[in-house]
Amino acid sequence: MSWFKIFSRKSKASHSAASVAPSVSDATAKAAVEAALEVAPAADPLVENGLPKIAIITGASRPGSVNKSVAEWVAAQVAGRSDADFELVDIADFKLPLLDEAYPAAYQNYQNPVTKAWSAKISEFDGFLFVVHEYNHTAGPVLVNALSYLNVEFNNKAAGFVSYGSMGGARAVEHLRESLSELQVAHVRNQVMFSLFDDFENFSEFKPTEQNAGTLTPMVDQLVSWTKGFATVR
Ligand SMILES: Cc1cc2nc3c(=O)[nH]c(=O)nc-3n(C[C@H](O)[C@H](O)[C@H](O)COP(=O)(O)O)c2cc1C
After folding, report:
1. CATH assignment of 51-233?
2. What is the residue extent of each domain of the chain?
3. How many CB atoms lie within 10 A of CB 18?
4. Three-class SS string for 26-49?
5. pLDDT tens across 154-188, in order?
């Protein structure tokens, strides 16, 4: 039984989620649910315009981070593709605090305007291309925190990774794959891994080697096809 079902049972048994969350009146909770439902997409974007919409999501907010320069390079590389629409989504723009929602994300009972904005943005997409750095052998906290805010918005969609680090960010992505599985995201095998030593000048200016840059297209090819495929699951 999943943690979500256990949480639901516990909540039903006590007729509220009060045992795990601050108490709110029925009217407040109802209003929050209605507000959360308002941000849900009216229709699947892929059904609406025929082209899958894929977000290139940054994963950093540290001043001086190279993350956005890598994401911008990715966006430039895929801009000419005709099989999907891509949009760069900078997590830093959302200014998400450390997770401070009272209810598990799967409830979509969001209290904070910033969560509703993040939910609405992620709901726009059929697939995700995460730009991932590695901190302490795992994915950086900004991305992990942002993923924790949502659940349903990611379900039955596809994802791919462009990572970087001393070992290409490989360990960060392996950990991220586990979290994304729980969010019911299908993550493609092909992966782009940039080395801090070979693909960055002075560890700061992104200058990808031809060999590593060449791994982007096969990954995006797989991501687009899985993105289309998972629309049928939704
Ligand atoms: C707190 C912290 C922990 C780090 N841990 C790792 C690590 O475990 N493996 C690694 O390859 N690089 C590690 N690095 C180096 C980063 O990969 C490198 O600084 C990279 O530029 C960070 O990405 P950013 O510029 O997006 O912050 C770490 C950097 C920081 C700031």
Report:
1. 3.40.50.360
2. 51-233
3. 11
4. HHHHHHHHHHHHHCCCCCCHHHHH
5. 999 999 999 999 999 999 999 999 999 999 999 99
| Nearest CA among 138, 182, 136 for reference residue 159 | 182
DSSP per position, 108-144:
----SHHHHHHHHHHHT-SEEEEEEEEETTEE-HHHH
The answer to whether residues 224 and 52 touch, using CB atoms and an 8 Å cutoff, is yes
What is the value of pTM for the model shown?
0.84
| Percent helix / strand / coil, the chain, rounded to 5 | 45, 20, 40
Tell me, in angstroms, the distance from the centre of ligand 1 to residue 219's CA: 23
Among 67, 134, 138, say which to mutate for ligand 1: greatest number of ligand atoms within 8 Å of CB. 134
| Other Cβ atoms closer than 10 A to 133 | 23
> Which ligand 1 atom is nearest residue 59's CA?
26
What burial class does residue 170 get, using C-beta atoms within 10 Å of its C-beta: 0-12 exposed, 13-18 middle, 19+ buried? middle
pLDDT tens figures, 16-44: 333 334 444 556 545 544 555 555 554 55
